[in-house]
């Protein structure tokens, strides 16, 4: 469950944060207000965010009410369905943490030297080519940092499934950290909880080491 959550959450977070950072360029009016708007969920207490989403996703919640009244469609019980529970957990978590990486990427974009951008434009790089061949390689250290931190936090996910789904239905959204918590504090099996904690530690160290090894191929620290 922790790996599935990570595989779904990390790409969605990074890609959407990059898209927002690129979209909120200097020519966008009110971009400072928009950045604050997207960053508000990051600084809002996670418990409050999760409880609001739980109310929205209930069968009597706002989402289902809009679907029935506007479209005449009955939405599934998201939090009671094994498939939808994990999807909703990922969507809520992306909404919660999107603003942090967006600000990292926005700061990196603002530090790009104008000369390199102008040289790319003179060479005919515009639109997607400019973004893919010039902008993204130049901010690759920031992308690398964001990817590492996002993967680590996703492997340590706890509050969202604990409050949103309780790890259910069944064990469909039970991540490793929540399992460790249950073993140690609910079932008082501290040895098994400690073993799980070591597994989590090894998993994080291993994934981080692989990232540092692979970053030599795509992270460029000199412009």
Order of helices and strands: HHHHHHHHHHH
The portion of residues forming beta strands comes to under 5%
Look at the helices and sheets and give the structural class: mainly alpha
Oligomer: single chain
Helix content: over 70%
Q: Could you list the spans in which at least 5 consecutive residues all have pLDDT below 50?
A: none
Strand tally, please? 0
Q: What kind of sheet is the major sheet?
A: none
Euclidean distance between termini CA atoms? 39 Å
The general outline is globular
Radius of gyration: 20 Å
Number of helical stretches of at least 4 residues: 11
Averaged pLDDT: 90
Please render the helix and strand layout as text.
Blueprint: H1 2-23, H2 31-43, H3 46-57, H4 62-71, H5 82-110, H6 114-122, H7 127-138, H8 140-155, H9 159-164, H10 176-186, H11 190-218
Helix pairs in contact: 1-5, 1-8, 2-5, 8-11, 10-11
Comma- or semicolon-separated keywords:
223 residues; mainly alpha; 76% helix
Quickly describe the structure.
This protein is mostly helical. The chain has helices at residues 2-23, 31-43, 46-57, 62-71, 82-110, 114-122, 127-138, 140-155, 159-164, 176-186, 190-218.
Please explain how this structure is put together.
This protein is mostly helical and 223 residues long. 76% of the residues lie in helices and 0% in strands. It contains eleven helices and no strands. The protein has helices spanning 2-23, 31-43, 46-57, 62-71, 82-110, 114-122, 127-138, 140-155, 159-164, 176-186, 190-218. Helix 1 packs parallel to helix 5, helix 1 runs antiparallel to helix 8 (140-155) and helix 8 (140-155) runs antiparallel to helix 11 (190-218). The radius of gyration is 20 Å and the shape is globular. The protein starts with a helix and ends in a 5-residue tail after the last helix. The model has no long low-confidence stretch (mean pLDDT 90).
